[in-house]
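Progress note, sequence design subtask.
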């Protein structure tokens, strides 16, 4: 799987479960009836687990927090995406220079 965000290639080892969500609110009224507000607009969210031996990859992604960019997954482009905090990373063995990180992306649709 080839994944990049705003020109930074991610070393993906596994894609997280894809969850499709849409705005939905259910309210039970005093009368006992149910009032529903819903939208067919689907929320875009993708999660990846990555492994790298180059901390620059993580550093470059952290530098893009709060900035809109294009997420490319296997040559399919998704514009107006953001990294959703937090970005979690850890060095597998202290001093080894081998890191895993989890990163989440969401898409601005308004």
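Output:
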């Amino acid at each position: 799987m080839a994944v990049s965000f705003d020109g930074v290639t991610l070393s993906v080892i596994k894609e997280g479960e894809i969850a499709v969500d849409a705005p939905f609110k259910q309210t039970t009224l005093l009368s006992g009836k149910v009032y529903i507000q819903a939208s067919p607009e689907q929320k875009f969210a993708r999660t990846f687990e990555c492994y790298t031996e180059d901390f620059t990859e993580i550093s470059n992604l952290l530098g893009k927090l709060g900035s809109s960019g294009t997420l490319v997954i296997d040559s399919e482009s998704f514009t107006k995406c953001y990294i959703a905090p937090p970005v979690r990373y850890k060095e597998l063995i202290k001093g080894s220079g081998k890191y895993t990180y989890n990163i989440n992306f969401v898409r601005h649709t308004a």
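Residues 35 and 89 are 42 Å apart (CA to CA). Work on this subtask will continue into the next period as scheduled.
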